[in-house]
Design a protein that fits this description.
globular, alpha/beta, 13 helices, single chain, 293 residues, 45% helix
């Protein structure tokens, strides 16, 4: 049986030789406050170039996602979990539409985590996370995640410090467990500036078609901006591991954030180096049966 080959996306002349996964990876000594939220690491082009590069990679992304799905239906155990964190207006919705929305929906599983329900609060904090994990061959996407339990819970003092401070090591153990179970974990923080968030919130207030997106609670979060940045820095310090590193994506430019997340996903799909499943039937016999039918 001849194997279908994945289509390679056209490499943009504006893309640097440095992979996005290396350029955006959180390493030792990382300081969140040093990140230029308007920067475009691993990409030298402008908005038009970025939008073209995003479209140019669609075919390869679609092929590799289908290959992962096919692998899962044939006994393969690999799966991907793309985890997106970011303050309100950081662009999580745009990632869902323009990146995740570009692949076959039957091979993706999106979960948006809101405030925990009464039932969820009766269980350990990872209980609802485990229920939403992707199966073999799937790309799971978390819009927010278990990291809310060391973000909002910490900043708003919803549980004692002794409780949330233990969760970092619990999260590391959990993510190591996922990796050992053939899950490729891609952790992304969409990082916007306070000024950019103000502009995006103002746009929602000025446009009746966007009132539905506005949440008065976002102002409460802005008033504790420094506390949230401190909490995010702690996450980077304590949970960016060799097995499950964080990637911080400058997100003031929406087009770049979408391209960066797409490229992170694409690079990790390529790294799986999967092959199309071999036929488990007699090809010639089936061709004969088809011709005679």
């Amino acid at each position: 049986m001849s194997k279908k080959k994945s289509k390679k996306s056209k490499k943009s002349k504006k893309t640097s030789a440095t992979p996005f996964s290396d350029a955006l990876r959180v390493g030792q000594g990382f300081v969140l406050d040093d990140v230029d939220t308007r920067d475009t690491p691993a990409f030298d082009g402008d908005k038009k170039d970025g939008q073209e590069a995003l479209r140019a990679a669609d075919d390869e992304m679609d092929d590799l996602q289908e290959q992962l799905y096919a692998h899962g239906t044939s006994g393969g155990t690999e799966k991907i979990l793309l985890l997106i964190q970011g303050l309100d207006t950081a662009g999580k919705g745009g990632i869902m539409r323009h990146v995740v929305g570009a692949v076959d929906p039957q091979g993706t599983q999106i979960t948006a985590f809101k405030a925990p329900t009464k039932e969820e609060l009766e269980h350990p904090f990872l209980w609802r996370i485990r229920k939403a994990l992707p199966g073999a061959g799937m790309i799971g996407v978390f819009d927010r995640s278990h990291y809310e339990d060391v973000l909002i819970v910490r900043v708003e003092e919803l549980v004692p410090k002794a409780t949330w401070s233990r969760r970092y090591s619990t999260i590391n153990d959990f993510e190591q467990e996922l990796v050992a179970d053939d899950t490729t974990l891609i952790k992304v923080m969409l990082h916007i500036s306070k000024d950019e968030q103000e502009e995006r919130l103002a746009e929602r207030l000025d446009n009746p078609e966007k009132y539905w997106k506005y949440n008065p609670g976002d102002i409460d979060t802005r008033e504790r901006w420094d506390d949230y940045m401190e909490a995010y820095q702690a996450i980077m310090d304590k949970t960016s591991t060799d097995a499950a590193p964080w990637h911080v994506v400058p997100a003031d430019r929406k087009w770049y954030a979408r391209l960066a997340v797409q490229q992170l996903l694409l690079e990790h799909l390529r790294a799986l180096d999967l092959q199309w499943p071999e036929a488990d039937f007699d090809i010639d016999a089936e061709k004969a049966r088809l011709a005679a039918s």
